[in-house]
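Session log. Operator J.P. requested a structure for one protein chain; no other inputs attached. Running the standard single-chain path with token output.
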Amino acid sequence: MTSGHWSLDDVSWERFDPSKVDPELVKIVKAASMVEFNGGDYATYLCNVFSDDAEFQAAARAWASEEVQHGAALARWAKLADGSFDFERSFARFREGYKISVEASDSIRGSRSGELVARCIVEVGTSSYYASIGATTQEPVLREICRYIAADELRHYRLFYLHLRRYLDHEGIGKWKRLAVALGRIGESEDDELAYAFYAANENLETSYDRKSCGRAYMKRAFACYQEPQVQRAVAMIFKAAGLNPQSRLAGLAARAAFGFVRLRLRQLAAA
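Structure written below.
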């Protein structure tokens, strides 16, 4: 399977160093592998929403194939880090317990422009997330995989932003509406998908699912990876998607506030 400028064969798997594996990172990598591998369902949803746009449908399918490859790479690394990890069984468990509505014909964001803003925000989040994991880990293969994925996610942001500009020409939703969609999508970062992925990847079959505790366990480990440069870059990209100046004083203030929130949320999660 190939994706963008790299394939699984390009990863230097022989450099894997078990002595540099952080068990806490392994847990969130397992969960992330399943969310990424589930990209096909999101492509189905997007193709339904953009049912008369063949150009965007082709882009969405190509995007999804790359997301699936991300999941495969992360799963392969997680198996190296934890030989007991059964990705196929965990993914089946995830798919059984978490489903998205692939039958929807209209965007849940209210417009196609809104949908594309939301997709931009997702790519902002994933690019900064994998860049943060890559900067945190000392394990060379995970660092390499995260570098590949973060670059892909940045390219995906540009792809969705390009189509957003195309739709804004005739839908014309304003900056505040775009900002509202962006903030709403950011607020979904602690939703059921990541919590259930963490549960399916890390908890045994006898343990019942508790969204609050699983979400807290995931976010505590994820937030610990974030550093200020990744947060600053993410905020600038969010401002751009919302139609605001990413180089403005307001963007700088928002970046500092966002990083402060990350540190505060981390302390809250650690205390809980």
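Operator note: The chain has one domain: 17-225.
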